[in-house]
Every structure is written in C-alpha cells, then in structure tokens.
AAEL012713-PA (Aedes aegypti), 363 residues
Amino acid sequence: MMDRSIPTRTVTTVLQIVWFGAAIAFATIDNDRFEGDSCLLADGTNGTCRRDLECEYLKTVPQKSWIKCSFDKNVSIVCCRNPSRTRFDVKSRSEQMCESFDEFNDADDHIFAGTSAALDEFPYLGALAFDNGNEVAFRCGANLISDRYMLTAAHCLTIEQPAFVRLGVVNITSTSKTDPPVDIGVEKTILHPNYQTRPLANDIALIKLNRTVTEDFLKRICLYTKPSDPATDVPLTIAGWGSTEQDWEMSPLLLKAKATTYEREVCNAILVNDKTDEKSSRRRILKLNPDQLCALGRNETGDNTGDTCIGDSGGPLELTIGRRRWLVGLTSTGKHCGTRFPGIYTRVSHFIDWIESEVWPEK
C-alpha cells in the first residue's frame, strides 16, 4: 500500500507557508524587528519577536491582531506574548522600583466628600497646566511614578500638550513664598498606542518631564500590579482639583474623598439600567472594558459620599497600606457627577507591561 503520509519536514514547511501567508494578510509590520527583539503587541503590552510556529500566543488571538516583526526566508517572525510571571520569578521592574521609593508619612483617617487635602498628603500628585499665550489653565491631574515620568489619562492630552506640571501645592493658584509651587516643564507626552474615544478604551498616557525631580518633599507612588481589583470593602482614596458643583468650575484647592470598588457585574448593571438624561457632559459608557474598573464613595444606604468629576481626570484612585501608596486607577470618565452612579477609572494593573517598557526599558 502506498504511504500517503507527508514527511515531517514537508509538513513543517507547509504549515510555515500557511502561517506566513496569514501573517502577511492580517498583521501589522513592527519596523523590521528580528528574532529575540522586544516588540509591542496589538493590546499595547510588551512581547518578544519569535518564529511563528514557536508562538503559542497566536492560537489565542485572531489573525488580524498578529504583529509581524519580519521574516527569515520562508519563516514569519511575529510578536509573541512573554510568558506570565509566577510567584517564583523575579519581581517586575515596577515592583522593584517601588521598593526603592521613599515612604510616605502616616495617612490621616480617610475622609469624606470634598475634604481639603493637607499640604504634604499627596506629594506625588500634580496639576497639568495649559498655556494658550494669554493665560494658564489647569486641567487634569497626573501622578509621579518615577524621577522623570508621570501617569495620567490619555484624553487629557489629545487637544494640546501641557506646558508644565505644577506639584507640591494644595492651592494651584497659590503665590506663597514659604511653600512655592514646583513647576516642571513637559518634554513629551506618550499616549497609549491603542487609545480610542468611542468607546473609550486604553485611557492612559505618560508625561516625560524635562528634568529629573530632585525635591525631597515630592514622592513617587507605586504602581498597583495585582490583576484583581481591591475588594469592595477596602478603603481607597480619590483626589483632584476638579469641579465640585454642576457649574463645572474647577476647585482651586486639592480635595480628597474616600471610595470603594464595585463588583464588575454590579457596576455594569447600574450603567445599563440608567434611564436618566444621557446629555451628561461626561462620556457615555454602558459597559466596562477589561481595562476599566468603577468606584464610588457611598454610605450604608448607597448615597454618594465621594466622587470624581470634570477636571479630576488623570488623578489617582489610591490604595494606602502603612507608609506605602499604590496607584490602582486613574480617573477617566463616568455618567454623572455626585450621584449614585460610580465613576469609571482606568485600571493601572492592566498596563504594567506597557508602562515598564516606556519608563524602565530593559537594557
């Protein structure tokens, strides 16, 4: 009987040609990177260029999401997701950097809606200053995560680049000579490569300052790296210079409030069942994306005791444990301010690989 099997080498060649053809048809080319080079996946996370047949990741995503690095003869070199870390692996770069950060002072007991912050309570938080040539306007917050980089919401940077970031103050209009503000210029802004507005997704961006932060009273906040959100009974803190009323006027004083997370299913149910006027000035959102979480300050009856609003974007959803602070989320959007509807925050842990690749690139 004739042997109808194809020799192993031939089978491999056929598979390579099929996969290679698919990669050409559907993938984006990543600047001719070669096997072993670092690359960026379609979702913005860090990867490594590998031979297509060696990349199990390709089996889990549609071909249109493949990123082709280059090719070697008839073998396609694609961007492959790096293996997940285990508890036995070396800590991530952001976790290692966190251990080197200065500790914070003991935090006061947290807080209720609209409470003014103390001068040194948020030494990592800055306000973005936009200069149109005639006046300086402050919009959005940003969080110091290294000596040169701050993390904020991408939608704060889509119209223009801020002229500088103001740090070290509670009153952003202060002209105090005893506690003067620290204004640091902006070298460049880096929006997440997959940021989009409709529907709002990947609402995160980096700001590179034009000098190293050397002031000892300014401190860096750690990045929250756990894939799961803090439990719904864990107290978190929100802060910003945003609107406190429906007239959308910015607050000159830095305000803080406490908040807790919602279960995703509960939050989605609240958003979907909202039958109120959709002409809200905040972006409409009907369901959380994987890169989002929701939180709100509320009492036992569900009434709002703390929320973010217009102007607070980019500011922190912060977890405090002892003398360490972790940036869990960035104020992003929501349906209504000061109601029972939770605020929507960008989940920082979803973007750790992208942040590390920009702020602490491997040498």
User: Anything to note?
Assistant: The chain is about 10% helix and 30% strand. The longest strand covers residues 324-334. Residues 1-27, 107-112, 299-307 have pLDDT under 50 and may be disordered. The radius of gyration is 23 Å.
